UniProtKB/TrEMBL annotation:
Ranges for domain Rv3660c-like CheY-like N-terminal: 7-115
The organism's taxonomic lineage, starting at the top: Bacteria, Bacillati, Actinomycetota, Actinomycetes, Streptosporangiales
SUPFAM superfamilies in the cross-refs: P-loop containing nucleoside triphosphate hydrolases
GO molecular function, one term: ATP hydrolysis activity
UniProt protein name: Helicase/secretion neighborhood CpaE-like protein
Gene Ontology cellular component terms for the protein in this record: cytoplasmic side of plasma membrane; cytosol
Organism: Nonomuraea jiangxiensis
InterPro entries: P-loop_NTPase (IPR027417), ParA/MinD_ATPase (IPR050625), Rv3660c (IPR022521), Rv3660c_N (IPR059050)
Coiled coil, from the record: none
Length: 346
């Protein structure tokens, strides 16, 4: 993989750029004069030109390209924007005030194959409604369709969605390894660190005592997930915490799983009132009950995304550590395929 290119003779500026690139997990190719930069000009994912070399670079008439920055340490230089235009840069970064922005740009340049996957949240309207099972099956079906999928367990007291999948012993990072993270996480590094099964990566909780997920850690994971995966599925707790609200604010769609009975609808209405404070597109997944589906949906005031019939053998299958069959002729497989078709871009 090609590296970002820096063109400067200013050793103090170069030291700053090497340090900033290291914070983004990047290494640099360095050219002290434009002639040395010529072999890398069209290959580097990003080019940072020091203000000291701007005029010399402009005089060499390099071909125009995207992802060129002019970097300066002098915010008062009146000639900065002339130099920016001369070298064909798209932006000026002033240090030290622009360090965070430059870290993000270096990190973006090192991200292979950006995917921009949507976030789908799943939450139960009442306990035992089956939100975690739907989350896991939706992620499994997506990965089976060769979509790179990230399944995130956001419920510290849920028992671990990796156990639901029968992979609680799989090696890899859990939330306990990530709760202290702030700022950017490289999506490739995240994927490599998590337990993965084909195209499915799972972020769950470790066994034993667990700590709440800080909102900053959830934000970093979701941003990495959106960059590096085709789909991010988040299994939310019914009692929202800061991490849950962080996920909801980034959700393309939230699926609210409820049973079509009086207590189920009443409980779901309470959950819905909290969820609505943080996200807009909320759809119901209905489980069988004594209330007609149309009446339950009308009572909630949100559209229905599907119906999930009871499956008596599903619990036994999961308790044996086996995964449910999600083929197109199965109830779960058909529902998940319909949801993916309706919720994901073509």
């Amino acid at each position: 993989m090609h590296r970002p290119l820096v063109i400067t003779e200013d050793h103090a500026l170069l030291d700053d750029l090497v340090r900033i690139a290291a914070a983004a997990g990047a290494q640099l190719d360095v050219a002290h004069v434009p002639a040395h930069a010529r072999p890398y000009w069209n290959l580097a994912p990003l080019i940072a030109i020091g203000a000291d070399q701007a005029d010399t670079v402009a005089a060499s008439s390099p071909p125009p390209r995207d992802q060129v920055l002019l970097v300066t340490r002098d915010p008062e230089d009146p000639d900065t924007w002339r130099k920016c235009v001369a070298v064909g840069a798209q932006a000026v970064v002033t240090l030290p005030s622009g360090e965070r922005d430059l870290v993000e740009r270096f990190a973006d340049a090192m991200e292979p194959d950006p995917r921009s996957g949507p976030v789908i949240c799943v939450i139960g309207g009442r306990g035992g409604a089956g939100a975690s099972v739907l989350s896991a099956c939706l992620a499994l079906r997506a990965s089976g369709d060769q979509l790179r999928t990230l399944l995130i367990d956001a419920d510290p007291l849920g028992g671990g969605i990796d156990a639901l999948l029968g992979h609680e012993e799989a090696p890899g990072s859990r939330w306990g390894d990530l709760v202290a993270r702030e700022g950017r996480i490289n999506s490739s590094a995240l994927h490599a660190a998590l337990p993965s099964f084909g195209d499915l990566a799972v972020l769950s909780f470790q066994r034993g005592e667990v700590a709440p997920i800080p909102a900053q850690a959830m934000r970093s994971v979701l941003e990495a997930g959106r960059r590096g995966f085709d789909l991010v599925v988040v299994d939310l707790p019914r009692h929202l915490d800061p991490a849950s609200t962080e996920a909801l604010t980034r959700a393309k769609t939230t699926l609210l799983v409820t049973t079509a009975d009086v207590r189920g609808v009443l409980s779901t209405s309470q959950v819905l009132g909290e969820v609505r404070k943080h996200t807009a597109d909320i759809r119901a997944i209905l489980r069988p009950g004594i209330v007609e589906d149309d009446m339950a949906v009308a009572s909630l005031g949100i559209p229905s995304a599907g119906h999930l019939p009871d499956q008596p053998r599903l619990t036994a299958t999961l308790n044996r550590g086996e995964l449910p069959k999600l083929g197109p002729r199965t109830v779960l497989g058909s529902l998940c395929a319909t949801l993916l078709r309706d919720l994901l871009p073509a």
